[in-house]
Design a protein that fits this description.
Elements: E1 5-9, H1 12-24, E2 29-33, E3 45-49, H2 57-73, E4 78-82, H3 95-106, E5 111-114, E6 122-125, E7 128-131, E8 134-135, H4 154-159, E9 165-169, H5 171-174, H6 178-190, E10 193-198, H7 203-212, E11 218-221, H8 230-235, E12 255-259, H9 264-273, E13 278-281, H10 290-301, E14 308-311, H11 316-326, H12 328-348, E15 353-357, H13 359-368, E16 373-381, E17 384-389, E18 398-403, H14 412-419
Parallel strand pairs: 1-3, 1-4, 2-3, 4-11, 5-10, 5-11, 9-10, 12-14, 12-15, 13-14, 15-18
Antiparallel strand pairs: 2-16, 6-7, 7-8, 16-17, 17-18
Helix pairs in contact: 2-3, 6-7, 10-12, 11-12, 12-13
This protein binds adenosine-5'-diphosphate.
The site of adenosine-5'-diphosphate has 22 residues, from helix 11, helix 12 and helix 13.
Amino acid sequence: MPLLLGCIADDFTGATDLAGMLVKGGMRTVQVIGVPDGPPPAADAIVVALKIRTAPTAEAVAEAVSAFDWLREAGAGKFFWKYCSTFDSTDQGNIGPVADALAQRTGAAMVPFCPAFPANQRSVFQGHLFVGSRLLSESGMENHPLTPMQDADLVRVLGRQTGHGVGLVPYAVVAQGPDAIRDAFTRLSDQGRRYAICDAVSEQHLVDLGAACDRMPLVTGGSGMAMGLPPLFRARGALDAATAADALPDVSGPGAVVSGSCSRQTLFQIGAAAQRMAHFALDPLDSESPEAAAAAALAWAADKPMPVLIAASAPPDRVQAIQARLGREAAGQFIEAALAEIAAGLVARGVRRLVVAGGETSGAVVQRLGVRQLRIGPEIDPGVPWTHAAGDGTRPDLLLALKSGNFGGRDFFANALAMTE
Ligand code: ADP
């Protein structure tokens, strides 16, 4: 299976979001965490998950280039640079500088940019990014601690991050479809502009933008922009229609849920799940160390029927009390370390299907389990797929569902496990 599309994502959950979008479009997709040392997995698309959204620019560019070189070596002929649908960046970057490096390497004469994702309320009109009905700069994102977005005019924002000329493909053109969009790209190129911010307020616009990018080596955007890419490969007959893109290898064994998310939605899901499975509430103030907390939870689980639910998740007043005693960061690190150890302990006891709630918590669990690669499977709820981590000498085959805090419906935990029984 030749690799068709090589993607570079600037953070972990953004990578999963993109990978899920490609699978829904019919591409078999593997997400790798960081740039791998070894040979590429068999897939139509590979998404390299980096953590470079707010890294120093030189570091971000170097990592993106190393991911690009690995993907090109793996055979990719088309590349996607994935950033956040709120264009999270500073005047230093890293969206522009990474694009500059990739444009140079691919030789792309024109590079489209579009963070729009209408299903998630992100749209671009006359080059301005809206979150719902508010301009980006009045959406709350103007107060982001790391990447305050105080200008919604993306032509201007990107212009400050690159030496290349930035133009606009406006709504009136995008609404006319792929041919009109291609003509607009050519006109911008003739004017000496190498980058184009593209308007999009509907999924059809994203699909048409994708079609207009059929010959471009480099496309950039949020995960919405990726919606238009699988149809290009299907039209070429490059996607195998016989196998489902979201098929995962069979893995059987007990299931379990580990949660470190304190989001309202997760607390709601825990309330629902606690009525159906044995539930252990981990409180960091009960133990001296993460290891001791993990040992206590695992001792509790020893005689419980699977699946079990082990959660540090707590409502805001309890979290505040814990943070007041331990410090905010130390409390987070204590719990992440304990939950990662618990996940490893559960796997050692035979658990093979693991649901993890919390973005940072998922990162800690994946790292503790030594997982470097996830094949993306069927969607459980919007934005959360089952994934498969192949075993190695030290770890068995696992199914992992990594849920960021606010995602998933009320019965997410039970539904997720039921899907894999
Ligand atoms: P989300 O996806 O909901 O943001 P994360 O896992 O990314 O979830 O972040 C939740 C953070 O809160 C983690 O660092 C976790 O360790 C921490 N945490 C979890 N439970 C508690 C608690 N009871 N008290 C304090 N911090 C907690």
